[in-house]
C-alpha cells in the first residue's frame, strides 16, 4: 500500500489550500467556500518516483473556541494514527499560538515521523524572521512555504518522501 501523508494543524493555517495545490485540483473546501462538510479527504500524489496518499483533515470547523479545539484534537488524533508521515502545518502570518503547541504535544506522544511546515510565507525575503519562532515547538526544522504562491513546496516534498 502507498504511504499515507496526513496534513494536520489548527483551523485556518491553509491545510485545504495546500492539499488542493499539491493535488492540482480543488477537491477540498477552503475557508469561505460554501460546500459539504467532510472531515477527511484523500487523493494520490506523485513526487519524483514516489507515490503517496495525501489526507486533508479538519473539514468545516465549529465556530466556538472550545468546540473548535476539541474538533481539532479529534481530527488530528485520527489522522496521526493513520499516517506514515505527518505534515504539521502552521501559519507564519499569525505566528505560533497555543493550539499549535497542543498539536505538537500530540505528535511527540505519537512517535510518528513529522515534517514541520510554516505556510503563508508568501515573501521569503521579507518574512524569513517569522519562521524562526517555530523551532520553539521542539519538532525540528521548519520548512517555509506559500501554498498560494507555490513557493517552497519542492523542498518540503523532498523531505516528506525522504522519510518513507
Ligand atoms: P484550513 O482551515 O487549515 O484548511 O485552511 P484553508 O485552506 O481553508 O485556508 C484558510 C485561509 O488561509 C484561506 O483564506 C486561504 O486562502 C488562506 N491561505 C492559505 N494558504 C495561504 C498562503 O500560502 N498564503 C496566504 N497569504 N494565505 C493563505
Ligand atoms: Mg480545511
Automatic annotation (TrEMBL):
GTP 1 binds at residues 9-16, 56-60, 119-122. Residues 3-164 form the EngA-type G domain. GTPase that plays an essential role in the late steps of ribosome biogenesis. Associates with the 50S ribosomal subunit. Belongs to the TRAFAC class TrmE-Era-EngA-EngB-Septin-like GTPase superfamily. EngA (Der) GTPase family. This is GTPase Der.
Amino acid at each position: 500500500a502507498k504511504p499515507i501523508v496526513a496534513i494536520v494543524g489548527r483551523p485556518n493555517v491553509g491545510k485545504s489550500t495546500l492539499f488542493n495545490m499539491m493535488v492540482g485540483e480543488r477537491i477540498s473546501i477552503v475557508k469561505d467556500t460554501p460546500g459539504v462538510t467532510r472531515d477527511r479527504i484523500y487523493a494520490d500524489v506523485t513526487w519524483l518516483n514516489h507515490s503517496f496518499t495525501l489526507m486533508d483533515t479538519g473539514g468545516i470547523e465549529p465556530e466556538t473556541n472550545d468546540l473548535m479545539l476539541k474538533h481539532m484534537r479529534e481530527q488530528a488524533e485520527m489522522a496521526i494514527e493513520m499516517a506514515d508521515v505527518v505534515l504539521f502545518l502552521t501559519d507564519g502570518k499569525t505566528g505560533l499560538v497555543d493550539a499549535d503547541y497542543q498539536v505538537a504535544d500530540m505528535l511527540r506522544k505519537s512517535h510518528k515521523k513529522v515534517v514541520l511546515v510554516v505556510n503563508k510565507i508568501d515573501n521569503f525575503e521579507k518574512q524569513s524572521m517569522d519562521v524562526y519562532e517555530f523551532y520553539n515547538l521542539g519538532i525540528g526544522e521548519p520548512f517555509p512555504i506559500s501554498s498560494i504562491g507555490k513557493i517552497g513546496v519542492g523542498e518540503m516534498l523532498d523531505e516528506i518522501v525522504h522519510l518513507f
